[in-house]
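Per reviewer request, we include the raw input and output of the structure prediction for the construct analysed in the revised manuscript.
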Amino acid sequence: MDAISVTVRRGGVVEATHRVHVATTDGETRGDPNLRFLLRSSCKPLQAIPFVDGYAELDDDEIAIACASHHAEPEQLAAARKVLARAGATVDDLENGLQPGRPDGKLGHNCSGKHAGMLAACRANGWPLHPYRKLSHPLQQRIAELLGGGRIAVDGCGLPTFETSLAEAAALLTRVPDRIRIAMRARPELVGASRDAVDTELMRLRDGWIAKGGAEGLFCAAHVDGRGIALKAEDGAYRAIGPALAEVLGIDELRETPLRNSRDEVVGVIGLLSR
């Protein structure tokens, strides 16, 4: 079947069309299952494995924030600080850099929870704290064992990221350990945001699912029954993911996203043209 077309409509005029490719572990496809790209933030629940394996007892908020692409909300920043404290580290130890428009310096970066978890993983395993982001570091070597396979590039936060295909990405989150799955479902608002985050919304709206979005329009999800799914916007437009996911999984609440202007007025819609 063809990729899903998601349109951006303002005043009844179609301003843009995004093509979203879909693959599932059941063999269903929309578009090209061999489409290749980088995993980016969708693999954070697997990058958190060395952190979780390093401690007998972790709270759900610590694990969830290590899997997060957060929006620097107060509870998210508090969870990241908690993980840093466990690592015996400070904000200065974070190797993710700064993100424009975010509060609290490097802590406000949307990947700071992942980076804090990596520092804690280094502490638990007796690895040097720095430079933990380098591929040659023992931590990244362990993560490469979990994720490796294709070409390697550098992610937006400075960490290695790995090439994959859409079909391979569909199975990605089916490999997430139960402890991480439980934490993500217990604290979905930490993984994405309290509102307007598709991965958070899927976990809130449907039992059994975990989900994680990634840069350039990537979205991966898995159900406790072993099903997995991946969606990739061909042009990298993440705003197309919600309506496309609604089409695949039948989630009416995500079928359309209001298009707002700078006055917070609804002036259009992002959704499927046929709906």
